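Extended Data, panel c. Modelled sequence:
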Amino acid sequence: MTAPTPHALHAGGCQCGAIRFRVEGVLGDASVCHCRMCQKASGGFYMPLVSLGTARLMWTRGRVRHFQSSNAARRGFCADCGTPLTYEAPDGVALAIGTFDDPRALRPGVQWGVEAKLPYVDAVPTLPEENTMADEGAAAFLATLVSYQHPDHDTDDWTPKIEAEREHWRPKEQGV
């Protein structure tokens, strides 16, 4: 297992900024979970989590919504943008590592649920790497993007962008 992070203060939040948190104290173990529930909850190959350990979690903006994902656990998320935030079980609370303003110090030290690990996950680091702007066909489009994502630091005030403000954008094909 990885050693607890030495930092005593962390902050983070969801993508849209409607929810922010602060963690004071020493966090517990950081891990990734490959179980199917974590895959679905994160929308990814696995879910990187760090346990609260002895640290104290304070929600500083907004209210977390919950989904009871099993008889033993529930998952917290932002109801506005859908960002997964917590995994909560009888043995404690874990936070999604990617929601921290500076996730670099939260290095996972163990993988759980490997029986559900997708067969190609270990090969991802061997794939060719490209800078986002290297896609010449998309470079002009990418250069026009304006991020509405909350910055990776606390703000005194933040008004998330809502869908109505972006009515000009629609996917080319709507399969739903």
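The radius of gyration is 18 Å. This feature is highlighted in the accompanying rendering.
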